[in-house]
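Moderator note: this is an archived Q&A kept for reference. The question asked for a predicted structure of one protein chain; the sequence and the answer are reproduced below.
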Amino acid sequence: MAQKKNIQPPIKQKPASPEGRPQPAPAVAETPARDMQLPAWLYDFKVQAVIVALLAFGFYCNTFSNESALDDTLLITDNEYVYQGFAGIPSLLSTDAYYSYYKHMGVGNQLSGGRYRPLSLVNFAIEQQFLGAIPQSKIDSVMQHAGYPGPQHDKLVSDMHVRHAFNVLWFTLSVIVLLWFLRYVVFRGNHIMAFLAAVIFAIHPIHTEVVANVKSRDEILSLLFICLTFICAFKYREQKKMWLLVAGLAGYFLAFLSKEYAIGLVVLLPLAFYMFGKETPGKSIVAALPYAGIAVLFLIIRSQIIDPSGNPPDLDILNNPYGFASATERLATILATPLNYLRLLIFPHPLTSDYSYNTIPYKDFASLLVWLSVVVHLGLLWLCYKFTRQRNVLGFAIAFYLVNLALVCNLFFNIGATMSERLIYHSSVGFAIAVGYLLYKGMEKIPSAAAAKTALAGLMVVLIALCGMKTIARNADWKNNYTLFPQDLKASPNSVMLNAYVAAAYVDQSVDEKDTVKKKAELHEAVHLFDKAISLDTTYVTAYINRGRSWYDLGEADSDFYNLNKAREMLPGYAQLPELFYNNAVLYMNKHQYQQAMNALQISLKLNPNFTPSRNAMTNIINAGVLGK
C-alpha cells in the first residue's frame, strides 16, 4: 500500500507592488477591531480626520475675536512689506524676517544668526492683498496710528480677526495631515494608535501659543510641510513615480522656507526609511540623499540673504539670555532647561508667553535639576538607540522628540531665547506618538476587551475635557497684550520683559483715561514696573524709553530727560529719539525752564540735524530772549 503524502498548501507570498517590489512590512501589527470591540468605522481615515479636525477647530475657534499680541506687532502690524500685499512679497523673500522692524527702529540685526523664514510672512502678505493692500505712501501713517483709537486701528483689529481664523484653519489642516503621516508612515499597521497620537497632539494645551499667536504660523506651516515630505517620500519609495519625488522635494523646500526645523529630516527621514520601510541603514541613507540636496540648496540661499558672520554682537539680554551668566552657569542652565519642556508636556500648567531672562534663574552644577535633566535625556538617548535597533516605534518617537529639541535647546545653536512653548511644537509630535503607542499597549493589558474599550474611551473623554478647558481659557489670555501680559506676570513675576510689557500696557491705557487721578495712578504703576524691569536688566533700552514716556505724561521733565539720555547712550541710532527729545524740550518750555529746553533741543539736532521742529523751537527761544531768565 502506497504511503499517503502529507500535501501542504503553497506558501502565500506578499502581494507585490505595481513595480514588482514587496510592500513594506508594518512597523506595528494592526489589532483587529474585535480584539477591543472598537467599531469598525473608527478605523476609517475620513472618520478619524473629521474627529481630529473638529477637536482642533473647536478648541481654538474662540481665538477668532482675538487681536494682535506679542510678536504679532513686529512681524505683521509693523511690517511694511506685509502691508503691501503681493507687492511686498519680493522683499519678504529677500530679507531677514525682522528686517522691516529693524529698519524702522534704526538698528541692525538683533538676533544671533538672523531669521530667514519667509513663507509665513508671504502668507500674511497674501491675506493682506485680499484684506486691502496699503500703498507705500500710506504705510507710515498706518503704522503710526497702530495701537491708537481710530479707523486705521479698527481696520487692523478687524484684519487680525481674519488672520486668527486662518491660523485655526491652517492648524486644523496640519492636524489632518499629521494623522495621514502617522497612519501611512509611523503606525501603518495600527490606525487606532495613529488616531490616538493625532488626538493627543490636537488637544495638547501647550500648543496655545502657536495657534493663538498669529506670528507662530511659521511653526504650523513647518510641521505641515514636514509631514507632507514624509508622506511623499514614502509614496515615491513604493510607487517610483517621479511626480511624487518632485512633490516631496518641493514640500521639503517649503518646510525650510517656513522654519529651520526642516534640517532635522536629514536624520529623521533615513531613520524612518530604516524603521518603517525595513531598509538597510545604507539604503536608507541613499534614499534620503535627494532631500539632503534640498537642505544644502536652502542653506546656500539663506547664506546669500543673511550672513551670520556679519551680525553684530548680541548684547541685549532679552535676545541673549545667558549674557550675564558665567561659562559654567550658561552650560548648567542650558542642560537643565529641557526638563521644563518635559514637565509642560506631561502637565501643561502654568503656561506663559515669556521665559526670557530671569524667568528661569541661572543654575550651576551644584543643582540637582541639572543632573536630573542630564540623566533623563541620556536615558532617552539610550532608549532611542535600543528601540531603534528593534525597529520599535518608540525609537522613532524619541528620535523625533530629541532631534527637534536639539535645534532649540541652545546647546548646539544659540536661538536667542531660553525656551518657549512654541519651540516644543515639533518635538511634541514625538511625545504624542509615544503616548498614543503606550496608551494603546496599556489598554491591551486589560483582560476584558469590553473593559479595555470602556477604559480607553473614558480616559480619552477625561483628557479631552481637561485639555479643552485649559486650552479655551488660555486662548482668552492671548486676546491682546492687555490681557496676556498681566496674566502671565502672575506666572513669571521676575520676567524682565513681562514687567516692562505690563508697564507699557498701563501707559497705553492711560492715554484715553479721562479721570485724572486714575490716569496718574496708572502711570505711577507703570513707572514702578519699569523700575523693576530695569533693576533686573540695567541695559534694557526700551524700558528706559517707555519709563521716560511715563514721566513725560506725568509732567516730570527731568525724569523724562534722564531716561532719554540713558537710551541715547545705549542706542543712539533709535529713529524716534530726536522727536522724543523735542517733546521733552516742549515740556521744559511749558515750565519756563528754557536752558533745559535748549539742552534737549541741542541733543535732538545732534541726533538728526534735519529735524525741523527742534530747529524752529531753538530759533524761537533765542529770538524770544528768554534764556537765563
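Archived answer notes: The mean pLDDT is 90.
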